[in-house]
């Protein structure tokens, strides 16, 4: 049974689209609506489009007006407001495209929003270079030999041990102010990670080194 959401937000447009048949709900923010239209995404597949719509005009906007959910709250980002709408749908997995690129404060803001929802959703970001997401304290990923693996503490992780990475960690600590675990790579097909305290992002590169 499909239980995933496909969400487009207003960063760099994806180079290609995933199979929409894998998702039970497809949505976008109003900024992403523009690039979806320009890339000839099948707009009829969208279940909702959220935002304040201050930049919308034209026939496409009028045609899909019944899918608009007006969210004018300026104290929240469009990404956050979209996740709040999705929270009402009882769906737990959210694949996000358009989370990076453009102005980097938006990228950092999107990570912060995802952090706030990490106990409610399984959120995965996808861009041209990698997929990235918060991981639990016991975690393994397969099919990654020779791929770039970056570990990023948010903001600190204690007693982390890894297996399958070129530069392994054994009961180590990572901290955003002193030591992070970026630009590593997998030497085995499976990489396992465990840590005792904190929160950790993993970036899994799309391409082989």
TrEMBL record:
Q: Tell me yes or no: is Transferase among this UniProt entry's keywords.
A: yes
Q: SUPFAM superfamilies this protein is in?
A: Thiamin pyrophosphokinase, catalytic domain, Thiamin pyrophosphokinase, substrate-binding domain
Which EC number(s) does the record attach to this protein?
2.7.6.2
Thiamin pyrophosphokinase thiamin-binding domain residues are 143-201
Q: Which domain of life is it from?
A: Bacteria
Q: Establish whether keyword Translocase is in the entry.
A: no
Pfam families recorded: TPK_B1_binding, TPK_catalytic
Sections of the chain in a coiled coil? none
Q: Which InterPro entries match?
A: Thi_PPkinase (IPR006282), Thiamin_PyroPKinase_B1-bd (IPR007373), TPK (IPR053149), TPK_B1-bd_sf (IPR036371), TPK_catalytic (IPR007371), TPK_catalytic_sf (IPR036759)
Keywords on record = ATP-binding, Kinase, Nucleotide-binding, Transferase
Name by which UniProt lists this protein: Thiamine diphosphokinase
* Organism expressing this protein natively: Chryseobacterium gambrini
């Amino acid at each position: 049974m499909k239980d995933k959401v496909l969400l487009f937000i207003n960063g760099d447009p994806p180079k290609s689209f995933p199979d929409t048949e894998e998702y039970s709900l497809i949505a976008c923010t109003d900024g992403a609506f523009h690039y979806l239209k320009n890339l000839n995404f099948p707009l009829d597949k969208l279940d909702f489009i959220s935002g304040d719509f201050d930049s919308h005009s034209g026939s496409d906007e009028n045609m899909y007006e019944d899918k608009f959910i007006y969210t004018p709250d300026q104290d929240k980002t469009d990404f956050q407001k979209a996740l709040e709408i999705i929270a009402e749908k009882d769906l737990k997995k959210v694949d996000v495209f358009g989370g990076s690129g453009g102005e980097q404060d938006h990228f950092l803001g999107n990570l912060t929003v995802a952090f706030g929802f990490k106990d409610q959703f399984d959120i995965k970001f996808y861009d041209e270079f990698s997929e990235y997401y918060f991981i639990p304290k016991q975690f393994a990923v397969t099919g990654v030999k020779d791929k770039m693996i970056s570990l990023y503490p948010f903001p600190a992780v204690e007693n982390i041990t890894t297996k399958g990475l070129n530069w392994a960690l054994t009961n180590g600590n990572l901290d955003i102010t002193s030591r992070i675990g970026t630009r590593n790579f997998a030497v085995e097909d499976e990489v396992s990670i465990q840590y005792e305290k904190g929160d950790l992002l993993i970036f899994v590169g799309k391409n082989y080194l």
